[in-house]
Amino acid sequence: MTISNNPYLEATDRDLTYENKSTIGDATYPYHRHNNCEIYLFLKGNVKFYLEYACYQLSPYDLIIMNPEEMHRIVCDDDSLYERITINIKKSYMDKLSNSTTDLSACFYQRPIGTGNILSLTQKQSEDLFNLCNLLDNAISSTDYGHSIQKDAYLSLLLVLVNSIFEKNTSNSISIMPNYLIETMQYIENHLNETISLQQLGIRFHQDKNYLSQQFKKHTGMTLRHYLLDRRIACAKSLLLSGCNVTEACYQSGFNDYANFIRSFTKLEGTSPGRFKKT
């Protein structure tokens, strides 16, 4: 069940969702985040995967792991069959399945944002992961005796495998995102508490402002204005969780108008900054 009005945040109140999707035809999905961690297993298609500042051409059985702060989008380059498995898991659910020696959420959080996301699998790892996905899917849809215990067991085994692959990962995927767009996004991230305009960005990165705006929308699916707003809201959330009060989070994340901050935060997150801080 969706619980957010933010078009760039796909939110659910479920602990676990599993989907095996197949679609045909050109498709473009805008940048978005989830309020859960995501395991994405690419099976088939001609797909570019945009993740934070990077863009990757995917190969079958590429495995991608993402935490709730990592923006991503997908572009299908032709009308070939696009098939993938996505598993979204709440951190609190992984914490419940973890123990003092095994943190099943480690691969999602114990790395810098936007790095170490793409994992290349061996043939055996691909087969093992695919089999566990099928077992998990069957357990989720089952009503047989013990199905909930089976679900927890298969999810635990799947997360152990993903974390093991992550720890040994040597993949060095090459980004095909244009450098000036990477630099633009990094500049925005590093100057959120300052005034940022399209004209200013065009001058800084030696691009016509209209061309920069068009290319940014083409590659991200978002306008620069909406991207900047989303990053400022994400910054404000981090500040609130780190102990800042609402006023401090407002101005330190780049909002110069307190009322606008409250209105924008509430609209995009479905709750006020004050209530978010208390959760």
UniProtKB/TrEMBL annotation:
SMART domains: HTH_ARAC
Domain of life: Bacteria
Record has Transcription as a keyword: yes
Sorted UniProt keywords: DNA-binding, Transcription, Transcription regulation
Domain HTH araC/xylS-type: 182-279
Keyword presence, Transcription: yes
Pfam families hit by this protein: AraC_binding (PF02311), HTH_18 (PF12833)
Gene3D superfamilies in the record: Homeodomain-like, Jelly Rolls
MF terms (GO), sorted A to Z: DNA-binding transcription factor activity; sequence-specific DNA binding
InterPro entries named among the record's database cross-references: AraC-bd, Homeodomain-like_sf, HTH-like, HTH_AraC, HTH_AraC-typ_CS, RmlC-like_jellyroll
Protein name stated in the entry: HTH-type transcriptional activator Btr
Species name: Clostridium chromiireducens
